Amino acid sequence: MDYKDILFCKDGTVATITLNRPDSFNALSLNLTAEIIAALDQCRQEQEIRAVVLTGSGKAFCSGGDIKYFEQYYRTQPDEPVRRLLGPLNQLITGIRKLPKPVLAAINGAAGGAGMSLALSCDLRICSSNAKLKQAYTSIGLAPDGGWSLWVGLLAGFSRASEMIFLDPVYDAEEALAMNLVHRVVAPDKLMETAGQWAGKLASGATQSFAIAKENLNNAMLGLLDRQLETESQGVIKASLTSDYQEGLEAFLAKRKPIYKGY
Questions:
Q1: Per residue in 3-42, pLDDT tens?
Q2: CA within 13 Å, CB half, 1
Q3: What are the percentages of helix, strand and coil residues in the chain, rounded to 5?
Q4: What is the CA radius of gyration of the chain?
Q5: CA dist 34 → 199, 249, 252 (Å)
Q6: Residue 10 pairs with which residues in a beta bridge?
Q7: d(CA 70, CA 137)
Q8: How many alpha carbons lie under 13 Å from residue 73 in its C-beta half-sphere?
Q9: Domain 6-188+222-254 adopts which CATH fold?
Q10: Which pLDDT belongs to residue 72?
Q11: What is the crossing angle of helices 30-45 and 80-98, to 10°?
């Protein structure tokens, strides 16, 4: 399959999916999301692929939803881009979790909003030391989606999740490591080398054992995922219809501080 917005390559038994919209910091457009889903399906079907690496090109892993797409609608149909992106995003998240092969996120740079959800949905995460993580949704008047509430609640705990939602700080790689959001921090020039080593070890492991154990983990820890994705979807649509969201997005585009009125 020919891809436009991702790079897909195979090195023996390891497949690497690279989000390739560097000019937009790999923001999730409809096409980019569809191509990642298609690449994951390819990984599922090709038996010789035994492990998958997910990373980004340029300075970012993934900045979240495509703000330029949101900008087209926010004055007239603010919920329209949210509704269109939610289904594919949820399909992508569940696709990663249901893939019977390990998926390793190599977080090369900034991961914000849905990009953070994408990274956290992977089985393992290696992080470049110059990467940054940010919740981002509430700063423009939206609410988390992509399973964010579940991932951060399980990995970092309720208190940290609350801090991220209400204060929306930017965390560096070492802080993310301390909160269990990532498994390893490495120098930027060692990221893909280390990811390759981990992926190679995964690919040489007991593939069926991994698949069964991953399914067991999903059943034990993520039984609420489908319900949570639906709950978050309803929440972010509701938030997109508020005047605070319109103000938040307008302020973001104008690079000024938003003035929220609470409705």
A1: 999 999 999 999 999 999 999 999 999 999 999 999 999 9
A2: 17
A3: 50, 15, 30
A4: 18
A5: 24, 25, 26
A6: 15
A7: 13
A8: 14
A9: 2-enoyl-CoA Hydratase; Chain A, domain 1 (3.90.226)
A10: 86
A11: 20
- pLDDT tens, 233-247? 999 999 999 999 999
Q: Which residues lie below 8 Å from residue 29, measured CB to CB, with a gap of 6+?
A: 5, 21, 66, 69
One-letter amino acid at 94 equals T
- Could you please report the per-residue DSSP string of 127-169? EETT-EEE--GGGGT----TTHHHHHHHHT-HHHHHHHHHH--
Read off the pLDDT of residues 39-74 as tens digits, 9 standing for 90 and up.
999 999 999 999 999 999 999 999 999 988 888 887
Mean pLDDT of 89-96: 97
Residue with tokens 């998240």: 93
Q: What is the dihedral of CA 150, 134, 181, 106, to 10 degrees?
A: 110
Residue 109, token pair as written in the block: 């740079």
Give the number of other CB atoms < 10 A from CB of residue 47.
Answer: 9
| Spans of all domains in the chain | 6-188+222-254
Residue 57 per-residue DSSP state: S
What DSSP string runs through 89-102? Answer: HHHHHHHHHH-SS-
What is the Cα–Cα distance from 43 to 149, expressed in whole angstroms? 27
Q: In the structure encoding, which two tokens stand for residue 41, read together?
A: 């399906």
- Dist CA 5 CA 35 (whole Å): 7
Q: How far apart are the first and last CA of the chain?
A: 46
CA 90/CA 200 separation, integer angstroms? 28
